[in-house]
Amino acid sequence: MIQCKSHKLYFRTSLGLFPVSSINYTTKFLTISHPPCSSSVHYISPLLLSAGFPSPPLPNSLLLFNCSNKRHPMPHFIQNCSSFHACGASCKVLSQEQPQVPRSCLLLDDLEKLDIGFDPKDLNCSHYSQLHRSLAGDTDNYEKYKLGTRISYDIPDHVPNLCNECEKPNGNCGVGLRCICHPKECKDKVISMGRTVDPFGNVIFSLISLILVIVSFFVI
Question: Which residues cross the membrane (predicted)?
């Protein structure tokens, strides 16, 4: 999970390596650092990074910049914001020419309210920033937000057991991984690629396929 490379810590995932800015062993969370301004073309959902881990004590947040969505309805939990620095050249131009442009900056205070498949491009946003809340308080207090994504972990004696969710149908083993359950362990069903498969149905399908092959052989 954690890899040391060139004297720097990284959070190793199936999606790549992400730099770790801090680890708190008392409260059991680590913070992944992000650039202050990222293009939506390279968006990776923070929900994928934290999948399989407990929810952090305070939610992670997302800033969206230069959104010009006209097709998709705006979720009620996404609010306008004006106290953050501009992100992206287009945002700076808009702020100079049209200071009152609506939705030039949008704040999603709690990422867990989003679907894991959300993408800033859905709202036609050009850039984004990933934040976490450092202090509890009123949502209008923007000073409580810090750059980065916090991931909580619960590792007794530093021995991870993150795949307990695989015991459930459609379980998630974290960071874009899916669970595959061995037939002997799953008894009456096999969990593969997030779907349940009935072994009896598989046997019937195989027999039908075999009969069709034999019939076609004699016909030829």
Answer: 199-219
Residue 115's domain spans which residues?
2-165
Which position has the token pair 């039908």? 208
**Residue 131 in domain:** yes
Residue 198 has pLDDT above 50, yes or no: no
**What whole-number distance in Å separates Cα of residue 150 and Cα of residue 61?**
10
Q: Would residue 175 count as lying in a domain?
A: no
CA distances to 2, 36, 42 from 124, in Å: 34, 19, 14
- Residue 104 contacts residue 110 (beta carbons within 8 Å): no
Name the residue type at position 53.
Answer: F
Q: What is the tens place of the pLDDT at every residue in 15-72?
A: 788 899 988 888 888 899 888 888 888 888 888 887 777 888 788 888 888 888 766 6
- Identify whether residues 195 and 94 lie together within a single domain: no
* 174 domain-assigned: no
157 with 187, same domain? no
Q: With 0-12 CB in 10 A as exposed, 13-18 as middle and 19+ as buried, what is 12?
A: middle
Residues 88 and 195 in one domain: no
Identify residue 158 by its one-letter amino acid code: H
Whether 80 and 145 have beta carbons less than 8 Å apart is answered as no
